[in-house]
Every structure is written in structure tokens, then in C-alpha cells.
Amino acid sequence: MTLRESVLDGLAEIRARKMRTFLQTLGVILGVASLVAVMGLVDAGRREALKFFSEVGGLTKLLVINRPPREEVLSARQLSSAGLTWDDARAIKREAPHVTQVDPLASAWLPVRHGDYHQSQDITGATPDFTGVYKFYPARGRFLIDDDIASQARVCVLGDTAARRYFGNEDPLGKILYVGDVGFDVVGVMKRKEFYFNEGSDNALEWMNRMTIVPLTAVYSRFTGDADKRVAYVNVLVDKVENNHRTSEAIEGILSRRHGGITDFEVWNRQEMLNRMREQSQMYNILFLATGIVSLVVGGIVIMNIMLASYRERIREVGIRKAVGARPRDIALQFLVESLLVTSIGGAVGLPAGIGFAKGITALLDRPAVITPWMAVISVGACAATGLFFGLYPAVKAARLNPVEALRYE
Amino acid sequence: MSSGAPGPSGGNGALIRIAGVHKVYDAGATSVHALRGVDLDVAAGEFLAIMGPSGSGKSTLMHILGCLDVPTRGTYLLGDTPVGNLSSRELAGVRNKRIGFVFQTFNLLPRATVLRNVELPLMYAGLGRFERRERALVALERVGLKERAAHFPSQLSGGQRQRVAIARALVNAPSILLADEPTGNLDTRTGQEILALFDGLNAQGHTVILVTHDPGIAARARRVIQIVDGLVAGDGGLGGAAAGAVPP
Question: What are phi and psi of A353, to 5 degrees?
Fold first, then answer.
């Protein structure tokens, strides 16, 4: 008996028992639907995180932050350490391997004045590497250059929102902005940075548009007078993700040496962070996947039960087929093909249902679902596997029937 | 009754040679001895009736003859093939190519058309679609039902269904036609028509073995075997068989 004939017989059987087929496929449909929905949501979440990271330095970014010692009584050496400084940043750039950009940042809270505008703002002290780390470039004019740092120049660059806030409709370029009591030439206005998580309405990068950026050295010399030239944190870009770990260890070594063995800093590795995130979300993924698999298994058991019922109804038919020459494998094939057909139909119906389900959930959660062809393949594959696995027992049982007893069966 | 067929001690050209066949069924603690040493030779072209009261073992004998079952003990040669040694897969092949079954209850597949029912043995024989169709239509023509090919069994009368079953039995050109009470579910007139059909097929050279408990039907056969208590109690023409219906 050819496969074609088995398929035709299977289709005839399914046509003759539409309601039963529907019930049979229902479990599989739900299983596939939840599989697709879960995969869509998980995938979408991961894509979002990656996209956001790439906007603020990507996975090759290491973040070096201050972490004051936790002990209640600090030793003299601990007290003597100034924490992260500009010199530390320069040492990292000089000595650490695989480093492409080093971006130390300091800030000060100062009154900003122009025309009618007079309000205290967060002023950021930065170096030219800042643009490369954040992929944040001037729309007009220029960003800070090495000369500005060397000369502690009184120049500033404004984020888009800051420029509007201070200057309204005026063109800020070439104008003077008073920070504290010092006049700064506005040399550049940055492009807008935008990122909306999950198509929400909050710009996660609006803080960048609000920035007022001056040379790092100008913060020390003109405002804080900080002799240690302390920084809030240092962004370090590594050439390749694979080098993250090595570079991060090298930075720890350099800083430890420079801070006299005191560990009052921490190096955050984006890649490791993402891995941690992934591990955490893995738990939920597994939970959701388990739900999907459980419903597939339940669907499979339903299929097995119905195939067993169908087997009992068709014992006589199996006897007839055997009497006219059906081999055991012909019978097994017929039953297997039928359960495969049922699950494939279930999978095919379940796929759009699953996509709809995923879209529905994501609409409720305000999160987008990403449906890839892969998910379709996996889901329908899972279905077929379910059909095969749970169809096997009834198929083998039918194939092994004794023809004489089968023919006598009432 | 005159017959060209050899007797039980048949010649070397026998189609079926059964010797010392026992069949024991295990039924829990007890076992049922359905056949207790049956010897039987059947030559090609014979029209043989197997008679016996119910429980005599005639059905068991038919199952063994039809390769639906194998003997517990003894030998069965079908042509040159020792059937007792075959696997269930090989037995299926023998049933497919060398045996045509006709049952009391017709045993057609209800959800398949007449044509597809008749094609069934050819499917398992692995024939292509077009050859199958052609041969099935020829077989249907032989039983006079070619024009009903597209009908479903439920749309046919009992006699017509049995004709379809006969067409299915014939379609793979088997060595033996095995009929188990083929008229049991038919009225007398229709039964006579079916028996006439078997007569015709036998006249065309088919070997026919008919299992029945009805002496009137057995009278059609040229040789009648009596089975009583799992043994051959009588073997001969109709006259002997009719007398032997009650064993001496």
C-alpha cells in the first residue's frame, strides 16, 4: 500500500468524523498556539533589549562605576582613595587591551542662564569619546575636541531638548550660555536620541536630549575645583564582545593598582548583564514552554485515546484488510498517517490561532510579538512529533491484531 | 459423484496438502483442541465443500487454509510453500496473492466505494492506480456490477454486496477462492444466484472451497469434506456426504 493510499484513506476517515477530528485537534491547536505565543513574546523581549543596548554603547560596553567600601569603619587607606578619576580613565585608555573608546563623565548641578531662562541644571563634563560610545552626534556645529579638553575651553554642546529650553526658537550656535557665572560658547547641538520600549510613548533616551555638555576639565577648573579630578563613571568600549572579559579583568587590575589595592570600584560587563537577564528570563521561558508542551502532551493523549477508540471501532476493518493481504506495516502506516494528518491539520489551524493569540496577549501587555518562520517550523514540527508519538501505540496495536480474531470482532 | 479431482490421497500435483494438522487454542487454564490431526489434499480446479456442525473445527480449518492462522502442529503445503513457517508479513503476501476470501457478512469497507473495495487487494499488492482500476473493473464486470463501481456498499442489496466481495476475492487472480457461508445472510433465491456464480467461476478453472453447514449448498460441490470433532469424518461425493452428515 502506498503512502498516497494511506493518506487518502486517512482523509476519508477524517471527513467521515469531522466532530471527532475537531476535538482531537483542539488540544494540539491550543498547544501550538501557546508555543507560538510564548516564542513570539520571548523573542520580542530579547530583540528589544538588544536594540536598546546598541543605542547606548552596545554589548561591548564596560561600565566602570564607583562603589564605596561597605565597611562601617574605613581604614586610612580606604579613606585616602579618591575613587574613580580622570587619570584612572586615561590609564585605562593607555594600558588596557582591546579598548577603543574611554568615556569618563563627571557632573555638577549648576544654574544655567540665557535671556529669560534661569534654572539649575545637571551639567555633564565629557570628553570627545562620548559621541562614539553613545552614537550621539551633533546635528549642527561640532562636539568637543581634544583641544577643548586640554585648554579647559569655555564651550558647550547642547542636547536637542536643552537647546529648545534655553534658546526657544533662537539659533543657539555661537550664542553664549551662562553656566554658574561663566559664559560658554554654544558650539554644537546634538541630534535627537529616541528609543521607545515596546512601542510605548516614553522616550527612554530623553535624558540625553536634555544634556548640557562641557569639557570634563572645565568642570574641575571652573566649577568644582576638584584637585583629584573625580568622575562619576567611565564608559569603556571594547573592540569585540569576546574580549569583554579580558579587558574587564585588565581594568580591574589597573584600577586596583592605582587605588593602592582598594576595591572601591566595579566593572559592569554588558554581555554578562545580558546573560544574567537571559538566565532570569529563561525561567519564565521554561515555564511558558512547559505550559505549551503540557498542552501538546494533553493534546497527544487525547489523540491517543481517540485513536484507540478508532482502533476499537475498526478492529473488523483491520481484519478485512489483513484478510486481503495488508501486512502489519501497512496497517501501522495507515494508523500513523491518520494521526499525523490529524495533528498536521491541528498544527496548521493552530498556527494562525497561535499568531492571533500572541498578538492578542501582546496587545494587552502593550508589548510587540515577533513571529519568525522558525517558530512556525518548530510548532508544526512539535505537532507532527506529537502525532507520531501518540499515534504509535494504537498503530502498533492495530498492526499486531490477529486476523482471525479481528474478523470475528463484533 | 463424478469428479476429475483426486481423492484425499491426491496426486503430486495437489494445490493444497495438509497433513496431521492440529490446532490448539489456549483459553486460560484450559486449552481447546479445535483440530486433531487433519489430512487433506486439494487439487487445482476442485470445487470442495467443507461441512460440519458448529464447533466442529471447520472454521478453524478454513482459517488455516486461508493462511489467516497457522497450525499448532502438522504441515500445510500451499503449492510449494510450507505455510507453517511463514512470518505474519509473508502470510499477508500469501493471502494477498493466492487466496480470495468471501465472507458470510460480506466484510466490505463501508466508507470505500465499490471500486475501491475491489481495488483493496491490488493496493496491498503494490499495483499502480490505473492498472488497479482496470483490473477492478474487469472483476466487477465478471460479477455483473461494473455499473455500480462508484456506489457505496450501503447503497447495494445483500446479493450485490456479496458479488462485490466475490469480485474483490477474484481481482488478484488467486489460486483458491475460500467462501465461508457465503449465502448465510441472503435469501434463498439470491443465495442460488451467488452459488451459480461460484459454479461458473469453478467452470472457468478457479479452485473453490466452500464452508457451510447446509447440505443443500454443499450439493453444489463435487467433493464434500465432513469435519466432526476436529477430524475429517467423511470425504467423497455428495451422496456420501449427505449420508455422512451424521457420523457413523
Answer: -60, -40
